[in-house]
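Homework-ish question, so no full write-ups if that breaks the rules, but can someone show me the predicted structure for this set?
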Amino acid sequence: MREALRDAMAEEMRRDENVFVMGEDVGVFQGAFKVTEGLLDEFGDKRVRDTPISENTIVGTGVGAAMGGLRPVVELMTVNFSLLALDQIVNHAAAIPYMFNGHVRVPMVIRMPGGGGHQLGPTHSHSFEALYLQVPGLLVACPSTPGDAKALLKAAIRDENPVVFIEHESLYGIKGEVSDDEDEILRFGEAVVRREGTDVTIVGILKMAHVAEKAAAELEEKHGISAEVIDPRTLRPLDLDTILESVRKTNRAVIVEEGWPHGGVGANLSTLITEQAFDWLDAPVQRVTGADVPMPYSRRMEQAAMPHEENLIEAVLAATEGAIDG
Amino acid sequence: MAGLPDRNIALDLLGRMCLIRRFEEEAGRQYQRAKAGGFLHLAIGEEATIVGTTSVMRSDDYLIGTYRTHGHALARGTPADEVMAELFGKETGTSGGRGGSMHIFDAERRFMGGYGIVGGNLPLAAGLGLASQYKGEDSVTVCMFGDGASNTGNFGETMNLAALWDLPVLFLVENNLYGMGTALERHSAVTDLSQKAAGYGIEGERIDGMDLLEVRERVGEHLESVRDSGKPSLVEAFTYRYRGHSAADPEVYRDKSEVEEWREKDPIESFIRRCLDGGVLDQDDVAAARREADETVEAAVEFADESPEPALESLYEELYVVSETMGWYSVDERSPEPHRGELGEDAPEVMKELAESGAAHASEERERQTREGVRE
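A: Not a homework solution, just the prediction itself:
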């Protein structure tokens, strides 16, 4: 996954000299998670810029550079640190094109890894997809496979709008098919059906897209339940049509995410499904989320605070109770 | 003391300062008549700092400011019509009525905006400076902000980054002695703000922001030094606003006598006195400059008054650029209609329909309520 992301940046940097990368330790250190490895060697320190630890100014400098005609790719070390830059992300990057009536655009990408699982504790492990998906003016990407990550990041860099690009720390090491075609991009707002099914629709993002696939396999094998698995891949714009189409077929929906339950991705999506496909639903929409606490450090507690396959399977069984001939 | 400019330049400088003064007075009046809404921050008293600075800038230099920037746009050449129309929230305003008084913008004249978040424009200035440096252009970004902003985290972060990366940015503090209602000595541990530059290893100088000629000379020198060296610099212009922080300010935090004292240093009157004494301008010139400002502002009010309100069906426009990489966006996720256009051209129709349905709830004929305490 990290190579796919790096290749996306390198290809776009070769393609357009106005594309550059900046962030904390993206250059000499080669990236806190090694995603920018090798970029400094190839492109030099004008285009791969190590910054001081100044999140709001790093993002704001990116916004200003974008207004001045460049295409910055800003890396923030974790999604938690992006909170220090919320002013520039929300009040500036997202608002500027609209508040100046389209007389200027902010074509920039703000990459940030998040998610739990590495015992990084209460200030380095969170999931803020819901926070960013709420903001008009932003695009929000949350890829779960190397192929999608590369194609989506390339689209994000070419796009004229500010993009919050959320990566999951636990997915950096995974392998998968990646296109060598330098022109292949994945358009924002296109969900993918990872597995077809007829009994229940499971929607999962980032690491939870993988948990959803594994759970679906076990549901089929052990419970005779045919689950359809959808990965939205971008949350803004959200390909609601693909999700609704599936729900109208399966009549049941379960949403899985790592973020907090209140006002989360699942809360939003379950409302949308209820509003727009109520007549097709045979059971309440179920949500599986991270626990409603700051992420604890202890390995056991951290695992308990994150959703797992068994939690998802349980939710699916609750949603399908009594309905499946198995 | 800086010498007097020649007649043509003096006329131009006087004209711009008179225009700002007159515009701001009229904006205040229009605000009381509820023609302009929201917050209104006037720069009466700060004309010399504004005009002195813009008059030594090149047309390809960037200027970026705060929420008190009607005057900055005017000084840069933005038509008064468009600035007033923005205050009125009209379609013909600099920002199409989407920004308002705090968010004037004119890309053509490289006025890169007024910003409502204190200190929010500083990182943007660094970015504009970076864009110039990256592209090998020798334009300088002038970043103007208030004394209050010098206490924000952005100030420290941005000064450090600009100094570290040798960004061509001139930071100019418009020190009007108050961060809203909190006096300088009550909000900043160091009250000589130019000293804050030392912490970042760059030049800092305090100048008299009420003296147009000094502003021109000192800012001009800093500007060219930034251009030549590529290193940022900090100028603190000591100035004063005669009006409150915003139009909704009872001014309980300062004495009337203090305001009167500063009135003695009125930047426009003192410039006129010097020009008259030096024989560069005569009384007719001064009268003509004031008359022209009156006429321009009167026409601007008429223009703004007669301009159309923004079309409601444009509510969702300009939020995103729809393109090959992002083919559609959901106007409102709650819409039961499929809302994807295959390409950009399809999207506006959907937006239009949704906005029109929203418009059914808004009365076109909104009664303009006159605010309390109106003086006509």
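Now go work out the reasoning yourself. Hint: Chain A touches chain B through 59 residues (CB under 8 Å).
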